[in-house]
Amino acid sequence: MAEAVVLVSGAGGGIGGAAARRFAAGGWRVVATDLSPDVLEPRLVAGALAIAGDLRSVAECRRIVGEAVAAGGRLDCLVNAAGLWTEGPADETREEDFDRVLGVNVKGLYFLSSAAIPHLERTEGSIVNLSSDAGLQGNTGAAVYCASKGAVSNLTRALALELAPRGVRVNAVCPADVDTPMLRYQAETFGGGDPEGYRRRLLDGYPQKQRARFLRADEVAELIFFLAQPSAAAITGANLSIDFGLSAGI
Ligand SMILES: NC(=O)c1ccc[n+]([C@@H]2O[C@H](COP(=O)([O-])OP(=O)(O)OC[C@H]3O[C@@H](n4cnc5c(N)ncnc54)[C@H](O)[C@@H]3O)[C@@H](O)[C@H]2O)c1
Fold first, then answer.
1. Residues 197-204: contacts with CB under 8 Å, at least 24 apart
2. Fewest CB within 10 A of the end CB: N or C in the chain?
3. Where are the domains of the chain?
4. Among the atoms of ligand 1, which is closest to the Cα of residue 149?
5. What is 5-176+217-242's CATH number?
6. What was the pLDDT predicted at 250?
7. Residue 55: which of 19, 16, 37, 82 has the closest Cα?
8. Ligand 1 atom closest to Cα of 56?
9. What is the reported pLDDT for 1?
10. For atom 20 of ligand 1, which residue has the closest CA?
């Protein structure tokens, strides 16, 4: 069989970068996409093809998938790991922040998936979306991000049903806080000048209390990689939590 090919969005980021490394270690050919070559370069795995592009444009989503398939000759998995965070009181939300976050987290993910479908059908491949615990429950003060991840979790279910007869599986992983550039951005931008305090408050909400820690990106990548395997053939339409029980209840 020809080498399986994965397209990873947000591959210049923490989880996308770790996913790219996991697939490469598993013998897959990796096509990595992110906003710019500068963002992609530091995390590029050996032998990977890099394609820069802005997922907020539907035309760009189509171009990225087209170039990935042209280079790889096939597409077996799409990992949608590009994403943005915002938070703040809902009565102060700026239209541009709403559009930016929904534009990447929902629209970009949706149209990258849409463009990939015919190619995934040929290989009986799969899509793995990055949702969040915030896709399964509300996070106080993060209504815009929750709106975006709730959309990801439910479009995952709808796409899984639609594509099942065509042999394509669609799943989402729902991590709690992962130690990545996004988490650093959150703490620095919204921590009121006390990023450590922000991080501490997040961990205080975990069932483990004093023993709580942030996820590592490679732990999330392992679950993503598992979902792309033939051994996960019975799993589609799932939102799999990897969150130390954060979304299990109170
Ligand atoms: N870090 C966490 O705590 C956490 C928890 C749960 C879910 N997630 C989700 O996992 C995914 C990956 O998060 P991460 O922590 O690796 O974040 P990250 O900030 O490290 O990486 C995200 C990447 O997305 C890229 N991106 C942003 N806008 C883009 C655009 N318009 N076009 C193309 N690429 C764009 C960024 O350049 C960045 O490299 C996101 O969807 C995030 O919401 C993260």
1. 202/177, 203/177
2. C
3. 5-176+217-242, 179-214
4. 43
5. 3.40.50.720
6. 87
7. 82
8. 31
9. 55
10. 13
Residue whose CA is closest, atom 8 of ligand 1?
132
Distance CA 15, CA 70 (A): 25
Residue at 158: amino acid letter: A
Q: Which residue's CA is the nearest one to ligand 1's atom 41?
A: 83
Contact 72, 29 (CB under 8 A): yes
Average pLDDT by consecutive 10-residue portion of the chain (250 residues)?
91 98 97 96 92 98 98 98 98 98 98 98 98 97 98 99 98 98 98 98 96 98 98 98 96
Distance 199 CA to ligand 1 centre (A): 18
DSSP code of 108? Answer: I
pTM over 0.70: yes
The answer to whether the beta carbons of residues 33 and 103 sit under 8 Å apart is: no
Residue 156, token pair as written in the block: 């995952």
DSSP string, 130-162: E--GGGTS--TT-HHHHHHHHHHHHHHHHHHHH
What is the pLDDT at residue 43?
86
Q: Which residue has the tokens 């907020």?
A: 56
From the CA of 60, give the closest atom in ligand 1: 32
Q: Please name the helix (run of DSSP H) or strand (run of DSSP E) that holds residue 115, with its range, or none.
A: helix 109-123
